[in-house]
Structures are given as C-alpha cells and as structure tokens.
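Q: Could you fold this chain for me?
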Amino acid sequence: MEKLPYHLTPYEGKRPVIENIKGVLVNIVCGLIPSKKYRGLIREYFLAYRICLDHPPLPVKKRLKPINLAFGFDSGLARQTGVAIASLLVNSKNRCSYTIYCVVNDSVTPETRNSLTNLVKALDQDSSLIFIEANQDFDQSLRGSWSIGIYYRMMLPALLPELDTIIYADGDAIFCRDLIGLTDLDMGENLIAGAPEKADGYINSGFLVLNLAQMRKEKIYEVWLDTSRRVQYNCPDQDLLNITCRNRIIYLPIKYNFRHRRYYFLYRRGLIHPFDHHDLKYNPVMLHYFGPLKPWHTIRFYLDDLWWEYARLTPFYEELLAERWD
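A: Sure. Below is the predicted structure, expressed as structure tokens.
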C-alpha cells in the first residue's frame, strides 16, 4: 500500500472528544427542526471549521523577484478571478510581487482584460498581468459537460516554454496570505505539488505547483493530450493529473487549498495531523470555494462576507452584487 503523506495518516486519539460531543448535540437539535434549510445553516455554523484571520503574518524582507502565478478562465469566471487576484495582492503588500499569467479565450473581452490589468496596477505597481490565449489542443478531449477551461492549467507546459515552474490557482478562491512559502519548494523530479482531496492521497487540482521543465522533459503534455482523447473521467483534469502523476506528487499543507466541507470530512475521521489543523487555523493561505454553490451566488455561504470584502476592491463589485441570488 502506498504510504500516505503524514498529515493524512490517522493520528493517535483521533479528533478531540469535545468535537464528537458537539457533533452529537448538533445532530440532536437538527432532528427537532423540520426545515432542511435551517438544519443546514445550523450545521454550517456549529460544525464548519473556523479559521482565525486576525493574526498578521510574520514580517519579512520584501522579495525582489516576482513570483510566477497562473490562472485560467473564460468570461464566466473572469470577474471572480479578479476578486482572487485582489485578495492576493492586498495580502502580499510590501512582502512580494507577482507576474500573473492568465490563460483565456476570446470570450474574455478587451474591456474585461483592461479592467483586470488596471486592477493589478492599482493594487501593486510591482506586479504585472499577462494574458495568454488558450490553444485548441484539448478540443477533442472526452470531457462530457465540462468546459474546455478545465484544461487551461494543463496547457501551461506548452504555453510557457520559458518557465521551469509555476504556481496555478483556480479563480473561485480568495487568498489570506502571500505565496512566499512556496518559492523555495524543491520539486526535484516530482511533477506537481497539491493539497489532498481524499484519504488515499488524491489531490485537488484547484491549487498546484507545476514542474514545467520536468513535464517537458518527459513529454507529459503529450501523455495528457493522448489520454484525454481516449478516456473520459468523472473529473477530467483532476483525475488525469492524479493518474499520470501518481507517486510524483508533493503534498502541500491543507492551508494552501482549504475547502471547508472536505476538510471537515477528513478531520472527523482523524485524518488530519494536529499540526496541520493548528497551522490552518492561524495561517490560512487560500480559501477555495469548491463546488457548484459560490459566495457570489448567495449570502448564505461559508465566509461569504470575506469574499465580498475583496470584491469591493474590484471594478466588478456592482455587477456581481446585482447578479446575486438573494
């Protein structure tokens, strides 16, 4: 059996007894409430993992070299990605800057591109935004109802031949810390780094460090193209990444890709190491709003107020607010 990363190995004592008691009491209360909506809200409030955002990061000397970071999106997620970018730049102020590569298609209008470029300039003069047109290499992939945009992250080895490594992040997220902690990550011959999604070491593709140089050396991009045209997976990009990179993955702490529902699932089963639990609480890096329901859809969402706080910094705030469901 493959050895799991330390933070997914069941630890002695499982989760604290108080958490078990709280879970039992909440379930008893919910059993007395007929409304499914309010049962969900109660469980969300009392059982969802709480992070502490009032602890500032330790001071560091500003990093002179920009950090390379990529996003991939079409018009459907362009404004929300602007919120993610705003949160990152605000929380990196006087600590580091970024060269942000955005893989897009022609649905992202010149007006939207200009708005995103101006947003970066307004928040951090030392950071820059570069748009890269997505290629058509994955057009013949078997992806069911999934958008071709899921493959934009996998185009990076071909689209950025001048870079050896890059950090990738989904746009349905916000950042609470900078990414300096990943700049000295030694990838060796590993292909990707990511945070676990399941107890068997399967990772989530919403935040990755990609070893582009090693991928090009081993022609991993060609493997992805060929496989995507022959096999249809449930989660096309994520399954493909996990299968082709198996045993060549560095496991990042959960704080780099915190999905609160998934985290609680693992935590309840005693699969999160106490160190990761504590580090996430006081030093979260990225909150990933994974799943069909997003904070820009409804106010009844985990830490939705924080997302809207960063949305206010963007030129898209009024549009996003007008489109909210409630």
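A (continued): Strands lie at 67-72, 98-104, 128-133, 165-169, 173-175, 192-196, 203-211, 249-251, 286-288.
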